[in-house]
Each structure stands twice: as C-alpha cells, then as structure tokens.
Specification:
With 971 residues, the protein is α/β, with parallel strands linked by helices. It is 43% helix and 18% strand.
C-alpha cells in the first residue's frame, strides 16, 4: 500500500478512538427532469469529527445495533446513494419492485431488499454510477379494501361517500400510513436514491399510464368486449387469473336428473355437478360421441330442472370425459371457464344468471335475488321434493378464492377492456431467444417461455375507485360501445369531442380504473421519466441493468414489464432478471398467520442485528426457497461479533496515533507487488496470497450473482484463515518477538487483510463493516464509496502449500494434546522430523509453532530421523515428509493413566458383556420388538469399538515404560 501523502499521518488527523468522517462537496449536473449529483470526497481533520455517528471497537464490547440508524442517516446525508458520474463507466440501474403502499415489512421484502442492496453496493464500489430506483405501488384492490374496512368501522359505506370523497379519504390514509413500508425498507440498509422515490399514482407516472394506453389503443392492441372474467362479488370487480388462489376444500358432488323432452319418466340423463345453482345458465347437455349409454338421446332436448320447462339440446363432443361423474356434462357457458370456451367453439348461446353481488338475477325465476350459496341449499331441497335429486356425495373441491379479499371467485361474462397479448408475447420470447435478456436461474426460461407461448389476452379494467382512471370518454346520448374517445387527458378528450360532435357536446369518463399491474408494468421506464424526459437523458439509465424479484412474481410483473417495455420503448427494459425464492420457516413450511410461523423482520433485526439477518438471507441459492431458522440467525450474529472482535484486535495492535513514523511504515507496504509479497515471512505470505485468491473468487461470484458462494467464501476465509490462524500467528510477532520489522510487517498485514475483508463483506453486512472501517487509521473515504479490491494480484502458491504443512503439523499436535487431556497451560517438548527443505521453513516459524501448539520453545528439536526415545513418544504424521514425536512423559502421568484405563476397561467390558448376553438370549430375541433388538445391536457394536480403542491405548502405554501399581505388581 503506497503512502501517497505522508502529511496526512499527523497526530491531529489520525484516528484511534474516534473515526474520521468525510463529507462531500456537491455540485449538481441537471438533466431535466432527471437530477444527478457528482461526489467529491474531502478529508476532514480531527476537529471536524462527528464522534456521535460511529463507535470504535476499542471503546465498545460489541457492535451496537442502535447505531444502524445513525449510520444510515449519515450515508444518506452525504449523498452516497446518488449515482456518481465522476468515475465514468456504464451505469448500474435496478428498479425496486414497488411494495404495496398498504404493506408492512415481511421476510419477502427483506429478501429482495437484501439482494438488491448487495448488487447496488457492489457495483457502486466497482466504480459504476449506480442507481437504485425506489417507490411504492398504489395497490388498487388492497388499498381500497383497507380504507373500506376502516370506514365500515365508523358505519360508513363507500357508496355513501361517492367517488370523489372516497378517493379523498384514500389519499388521506396514504399520506398518514403509506410511508411505513418505506421507513422499514430503509431500516434494512437499502441504499436507494430516495430523492427519486416514486408512487404509481404520482402525476408523472399517471401521465405515463395514459400515454401507454393511448399508444396501444392507436395500434389496436387495446379493445373493449364482453368476455369471461374472474369476478369478485364482494369487491364487485374483475380480478386477474394470477390473483386467484385455488384451495382444496370439502364440498359435495350433486347428482341431478334432467328429463328428456317428449320421453317417458324413465327417459332422463343424470349429471354430476359441484355447483347446482348454475343449472339456470345451462344451454346444453353434452355426452361423448362413443358413449353408447346416451347415443339414443343425442339430437333430442333435455328439460332444465326448476325452469318451468326450458329446453336445451343434447349434443355430443369428444371434450366430454366418459369416466367423470355420469359421463354427462352440463354446459353453463356464462359461469364456467371451460364451458365458456366449449360454447364458443360449438356456437352455443351464453346465458348470465348472476348479478354482480353474487345474487341470482331474473333468469333464475323463483330464486331471483337470493345469494348463490343460499340458492344451492334451497335448490337441492326443491329437487329432492320433485324427485330430481339423485344423491349428494362428499367431494373435495378446488375452490377459486380472491387473493386479496378471500371470497370465492365467480366466473362471469362481463364487458371489460383487454390487451391483445400475442404480438407482445412474441417479442418478449425473441428477446430471451436472442440473448438480449438473461433470466437467472436459467431454468425459469422454460417457465417464462411456456407462459408466454400460451398467454391469453389481459383484462386490464377494474371496477374500483382507487387507481388510474381508464383514459376513455363517452359521448352523452351516444352508444358507449360504438362512440368513445381515447385521450391523454380530459382536456384533450374534450377538444377531440368538440371537433367531432360540435361545441355543445357533453362527455363523461369511463368509471373503471386500470389493473394495478398495468401501471406496474411501466415501472422501469416511467420512474425514469418516460415519456417526458428527453431521449438522451432517458438512455442514460435505460435499459436498466438488473431486475431482482421473487420467482413467484414472474408472470404478475416481470413478463409484463418485458412485453410493455419492448412495445413502448422499443428496448428490452432489463439486461438481467434475477429471481429469488420464498422464505420459509425452519421446517420448510410457507409462512402464514394461520400456522403462526411468521417471522417479523423488524423484531429479528432488533434481536440479531440487520447485518446478521441480511447475511442469513443472502446465503441462499438463486431461485431456491430458503428455510429461516433461529440457529442460522444466532450463528450469523456470532459472526458479526467475531468480526467486531477481530477489529478490536487489529486496532489495539496498531501503532499509537502519536507514532507517525511507525504508521508511515506500515502504510508503505505494497502487497500488490510480487517482490514485496515474496519478501514476507511464511504466515504473512500465505495469508496475503490466500486473500488475493479470495478477492478473485469473490469478485467472480459477485459478477455471476452467486451471492451464496460469496458469503460462504468470505465467511470461511475470515473465520478460519484470518481469525483462527493469522490473528493467532501474529501474536508471536506482536507479543513474543523483539518487535521491529517483524512486528511492523504483522501490523501491516493485519490492517491490509482486514480492510479488504471489510470491503468484500460490506455489500452483505453494511453497518458493522462501515463502523469498523471508520475506526481504521487514514480513512480518506467512507467504505460505501471506497474502491473495490483489485483483482489478479500476486499470490505465492508454494508458500500456501508450505503453510498448509505447517497447519497440518499444528493440528496433529493439538489433537494429540486433546486425546491425552494435556492441560492447556502445560508446555511440552517435540521432535520435528523432516527433510532439510521443510525444516528450513518450519524452523523459521518456531515461535509461531510453539505459540499455536503450546510447545516449550526451548524444547523443539528439528531432525531428519526419529529421536532415540521414539518408542516412548506419541508418533504423529502431519504429511508426507513431515512427522513429530511428542514424549509421552511430557503429556501424561503414565502410571496414573494405566491405572485409570485399566479401571475403565473393566467397567466397559462389563457393559459390553451385558449387551452381548441379552443378544445371546433366545427368549429376549423372541419377545423383544425388532427396533429394540436393532438398538441393542448398535450399542454393542459401539461399545466393542470403544473397548478395542481403549485396550490399544493401554497396550501402547504399557509398552513405553515399566510401570508399578500401588500393589507392587509389575506391568
């Protein structure tokens, strides 16, 4: 690390107990309506420190989670979340999946925020102008439901207020409660550019919605028509196929007689249905052409029960399943999706029997005005009385329920606005095929392709009051299906109407609103200013680099954004789509309030810290669901503490702030230089080489979006290589040496490796890493905007292999000490047997070996052959050409150990003999359950193995020396 400005190392500017803080000069570069900020770091002197923001590990036992908010506010106040164009390079842009304005943080939000923030922080440190676009969705159905329920608690209905007053109430609710989810997302550390925060009903985004509708209608991609939709009777609106959830629920299969017109009482067909109330909408009965049971009735008419003799044709079609029910299918095309398609193919009429509130209309005759489920019960009783009810069998139903309201959805033919999807889907398919769009994991390409290949037209109208009003105006006195105006605004609509119909024309706007997903599908480009921003400024950030979201939202949002982006901008809106899985509980179950297994992210952050939660969530595999457990969170909280303690160790062992000469020395090391690396002692050369390898591995994994690999690679290196080995090794330099150059190089390596660990770990664990970074000396910038570590730096593979031999020797000695229960404080002697090459580099680290293995420094001997007392020593083979002999007398009192083992063997033998005796008993074998016998066999096998090992150890001890028992017997 070259020292660029030694004058910065004055005692007044070096940090020891308080951090250096760096502000930013701000000069704005405005590209209306977009706004960017260029950031220039400026070093503050000690007098400008804000010690209330950061806390040093030297004065705090552990990282304080309450500091997270202060750190976050500091980042934001310094403008670090805004894109910085000073570094050049192509921008990295991510649009946040806008959470519902009604929402509060759940683990799904925590997952996407964590992953997107990792991407953003990494690319920011890589020097790219980085923009993360935040915002919230107006969530038409969800928000309207929340406000309607609030009003209902006051005894007020939506209809009582009228549209204008109701929407006013919703806006009031949004202003009061709508920021909850945003503040909670900030709590997770989301480094979004909050100056660009958007709401889908913002004026600019609303203009984008109207422009999109206008352009697509001009191309005949949007049309109006009466077709089958999913109808929510409670909400009284159409809902998307994707917003209908199917659940298996107990119900019945009803068998009903349909008499044949003109036939005798024995001429009838029996149908089986789960929804008898729909029979009022029957327009035909169908049987399979090859079903001989009913062939004589094909071409005749059947009488629909309880309709005063209404006739419907009996037809044949191969669509009918002969094996289901009775093999006779009642066709109710106005109330069943499959029947609707069949009726359109066969040219059957479509009969609607239901009002929009779920009651039956006049077509149902005497049942008119009754609720659909009330009719089901009443109709069955009436059919029983008229001898048309055959039987009612229990049956498991697949019930369609509204994702938002929970009520049972009714298939209903309704006049709605639709988008023709096939031409849009074709372009979206080609984008993936041509490689213009990359989906990760790639297995989701097949799902994406399948859905787009089989896509249906999209119903985009909703019968709500909260949302984007459909930009269509009708002419008073004209047929609304024939005469209407599509315009970008009411002013434009009125102008067009006057031009066509005269000055006295009156117009009114379509009462419906657009599906929330329509506006959300414009999100990646409408948030960037489309269509208002100039083409030059728009292309600065569009197309966006990355879309990250859950795989369960692939069709709700992702595919639609791709289609709309290509159609409206001519460009694929994303370069990459990264799909994460669901967060499940520790047992792999989906989290739900019903199961009581929902984990609250806010509570989790308060208990374990935000960094531990983020690290846990990020360790999953792309696209795979993640089981969240307390054990994982606890482990990663311990990781945070370990990181903090490592920082404490590094800081406590650096030169004092007043020792500017020593500080200048450790800052002058250039570890990116081959010559410098090769001049380092073995442990230092090893750890720096391993670090350089790690940087390459981690950077490659970041670039591939393999975040689970990133986390595991850094975790393993920090915990094992750095904390367990190098920190312990450095103590031999810092505590036991004469100081000087050896101590200085250890200090330099500690600082170099630790600061690079902080850099690589920062995207995962931003809070604790920034706190630690600020405590290190000579911090000329915040960690969040620091440069990413250089790749392809030198590494010495031979030193790595040599230190691995050193580690193997140390582990072997430690294991032997543990096996013989040597007291931790006891120092023992050792003879190290190796060839001259190995001896040369091992002997140079004699102090380290003594420290790590708890050997007597003065009693470590290096030789090329076994020592004379080898037969009285524990022989260890650490690796090829590297052995050690530990005198047994150093480790254990042989006489006492022989006596202890002899007693233990006697006890173990009795236990083993008892188990064998039970297994040898014919009576026991005959009466005992199989699992009990298997358990005893397993215990006997384990007991025999332990007995053999203990006997072998006793034999070895007896062979090493002459031992006398207290009774004077020679062994």
């Amino acid at each position: 690390m070259a020292l660029s400005n030694p004058s910065l190392l004055s005692s007044s500017s070096l940090y020891r107990l308080n951090p250096l803080l760096f502000s930013q000069r701000r000069r704005s570069m405005t590209f209306s309506p977009l706004h960017f900020t260029s950031l220039k770091p400026r070093l503050f002197t000690a007098s400008a420190m804000n010690s209330d923001v950061f806390t040093s590990p030297e004065v705090a036992k552990s990282f304080d989670f309450t500091n997270e908010e202060r750190i976050y506010n500091w980042w934001e106040s310094q403008g670090y979340f805004k894109p910085n164009f000073d570094r050049g390079s192509d921008p990295f842009v991510v649009p946040m999946p806008p959470p519902n304005v009604t929402g509060s943080l759940h683990m799904g939000h925590a997952m996407f925020v964590t992953l997107e923030d990792i991407m953003v922080r990494y690319h920011r440190m890589k020097g790219k102008p980085t923009l993360w676009l935040p915002g919230t969705d107006h969530a038409g159905i969800a928000t309207q439901l929340v406000v309607e329920r609030m009003l209902a608690s006051e005894g007020i209905k939506r209809a009582d207020l009228g549209r204008d007053e109701f929407t006013k109430r919703v806006w009031e609710w949004k202003e009061k409660y709508g920021g909850t989810i945003t503040n909670q997302i900030k709590r997770l550390g989301a480094s979004c550019d909050w100056t660009r925060e958007r709401f889908t009903l913002d004026e600019q985004l609303s203009r984008a919605v109207n422009e999109a509708f206008f352009r697509m209608h001009e191309k005949d991609l949007i049309y109006q028509g009466s077709y089958m939709v999913n109808w929510s009777p409670n909400l009284q609106t159409a809902v998307s196929d994707l917003e209908v959830e199917y659940s298996e629920e107990p119900g019945f299969l009803y068998y009903i007689k349909y008499r044949v017109a003109g036939g005798s009482r024995s001429d009838y067909l029996t149908i089986a249905t789960t929804r008898p109330e729909t029979l009022f909408g029957d327009t035909a009965l169908a049987v399979h052409p090859e079903d001989e049971r009913y062939s004589k009735y094909v071409g005749l008419n059947a009488i629909v029960p309880q309709t005063f003799g209404r006739h419907i044709p009996i037809i044949s079609d191969k669509y009918v399943d002969k094996e289901f029910g009775t093999g006779v299918l009642k066709i109710s095309p106005g109330h069943d999706h499959n029947d609707y398609l069949l009726a359109r193919k066969l040219g059957l009429p479509i009969l609607n029997i239901m009002n929009k509130d779920g009651t039956l209309n006049d077509v149902a005759g005497l049942y008119s005005g009754l609720d659909r489920f009330e009719v089901r019960e009443k109709l069955w009783k009436d059919l029983e009385e008229t001898d048309l009810a055959v039987e009612k069998k229990p049956y498991t139903l697949r019930v369609p329920r509204s994702q938002r309201g929970g009520e049972i959805i009714e298939p209903l033919v309704s006049k709605q606005w639709f988008i023709t999807m096939e031409p849009l889907a074709e372009k979206a398919l080609k984008a993936v095929e041509k490689g213009e769009l990359n989906i990760m994991p790639d297995r989701f390409e097949k799902i994406y392709n399948h859905w787009l290949t089989n896509i249906k037209d999209w119903c985009i109208s909703r019968q709500l009051w909260w949302g984007h009003r459909i930009p269509v105006w009708y002419i008073v006195g004209k047929d609304c299906e024939e005469e209407y105006i599509v315009a970008r605004s009411s002013e434009e609509a009125f102008t067009k109407a006057r031009e066509k119909y005269g000055k006295n024309v009156e117009i009114y706007q379509d009462p419906d609103v657009l599906d929330t997903w329509f506006s959300s599908s414009l999100w990646p480009f409408s948030t960037l200013g489309w269509p208002d921003v100039s083409a030059e400024d728009f292309k600065r950030f569009y197309p966006t680099s990355m879309l990250e979201t859950g795989h369960d939202i692939l069709f709700f949002w992702v595919a639609r954004m791709v289609m709309m982006g290509i159609e409206l901008t001519g460009t694929v809106p994303f370069s990459n789509i990264y799909l994460h899985g669901l967060i499940r509980d520790s047992q792999g179950r989906k989290m739900s309030k019903t199961l009581g297994n929902v984990v609250d992210p806010i509570g989790t952050m308060q208990e374990f810290g935000t960094d531990a939660l983020r690290f846990t969530l990020a360790l999953g595999t792309a696209g795979q669901d993640l089981n969240l457990s307390t054990e994982r969170l606890t482990s990663n909280k311990a990781f945070t503490n370990k990181l903090w303690n490592a920082g404490k160790f590094v800081l406590q062992n650096l030169p004092k702030p007043s020792d500017t000469s020593a500080l200048r020395t450790i800052m002058a090391y250039e570890f990116n230089n081959d010559e410098c690396l090769l001049s380092l002692p073995l442990p230092e050369c090893w750890v720096v080489s391993k670090l350089h390898i790690l940087v390459d591995m981690v950077t490659a994994s970041y670039d591939k979006f393999f975040f689970g690999d990133v986390g595991r690679e850094i975790y393993d290196f920090f915990w094992s290589d750095f904390a367990d080995w190098y920190i312990e090794t450095s103590k031999a330099r810092l505590y036991n040496s004469d100081g000087g150059a050896v101590s200085s190089v250890a200090q330099a390596v500690l600082l170099y490796v630790f600061e690079n660990i902080l850099k690589m770990l920062h995207p995962f664990m931003p809070y604790v890493t920034e706190e630690l970074w600020q405590a290190l000396p000579n911090r000329t910038e915040a960690l969040i905007v620091s440069n990413w570590p250089l790749t392809s730096l030198p590494r010495h593979t031979n030193s790595i292999k040599r230190f691995e031999n050193f580690q193997a020797l140390t582990r072997a000695i430690r294991n032997a000490r543990a096996e013989y229960s040597v007291e931790p404080a006891k120092r023992i002697s050792a003879s190290i047997v190796a060839n001259s090459e190995v001896t040369q580099y091992i002997s140079k680290e004699k102090e380290v070996l003594a420290l790590l293995s708890r050997l007597d420094l003065q009693s470590i001997h290096f030789t090329d052959s076994p020592p004379n007392d080898a037969n009285q020593s524990v022989h260890l083979v650490a690796g090829e050409g590297l052995e050690a002999y530990l005198p047994l007398a150093d480790m254990v009192d042989i006489t006492a150990e022989v006596q202890r083992l002899s007693k233990r063997i006697s006890k173990m033998q009795k236990e083993y003999d008892g188990l064998v005796a039970r297994l040898s008993s014919p009576e026991f074998i005959a009466k005992a359950p199989g699992e009990i016998i298997d358990g005893i066999r397993e215990k006997a096998s384990e007991a025999e193995e332990k007995l053999t090992l203990t006997k072998n150890r006793l034999t070895f001890l007896r062979s090493t020396a002459v031992v006398r028992t207290p009774q004077g017997i020679l062994l």
